[in-house]
Amino acid sequence: MAIALGVTTDALIFDSTDRSTDDELRLQFEALKGFTPEEKKVAKTVLESLILQHDAKRFSSAG
Fold first, then answer.
1. Rounded to an integer, what distance in angstroms lies between the CA atom of residue 32 and that of residue 63?
2. How many Cβ atoms sit within 10 Å of the Cβ of residue 54?
3. What's the CA gap between 40 and 24, in Å, rounded?
4. Shortest CA distance to 21 belongs to which of 13, 8, 9, 30?
5. pTM above 0.70, yes or no
6. Do 2 and 9 form a contact (C-beta atoms < 8 A)?
7. CA-CA distance, 31 to 6, in Å (whole number)?
8. Cβ-based neighbours of 10, under 8 Å, separated by 6 or more
9. Coil, strand, or helix at residue 63?
10. Using an 8 Å Cβ cutoff, are 33 and 25 in contact?
11. Which residues contact 29 (CB under 8 A, 6 or more apart)?
12. What is the chain's pLDDT, residue by residue, as a tens digit (63 residues)?
């Protein structure tokens, strides 16, 4: 169905606010398409590290 409509499956399943990327980050994520597989791996590792750090701060301040 998504292919026939020319949209992503996320667009069919989620509300537009459920899984949208912040506009200020959209261009950075678009730039990742041109990265080599190794560069994408590094970018993913950096993002995962930042997310873990954010979650650790959030959980430590909640307790």
1. 36
2. 10
3. 19
4. 30
5. no
6. yes
7. 22
8. 19
9. coil
10. no
11. 21
12. 878 888 787 777 777 665 566 777 888 888 999 999 999 999 999 999 999 999 998 888 876
- With residue 46 as reference, give the H or E element that holds it: helix 37-62
Indicate the DSSP class of residue 32: G
Q: Which token pair is 40?
A: 């994408």
Residue 59 pLDDT: 86
Please check whether residue 32 is in contact with residue 43, taking contact to mean a CB–CB distance below 8 angstroms: yes
Distance of alpha carbon 14 from alpha carbon 12, whole angstroms: 6
C-alpha 27/C-alpha 54 separation (Å) is 22
Which of 27-32's residues contact partners 24+ apart within 8 Å by CB, and which partners?
Answer: none
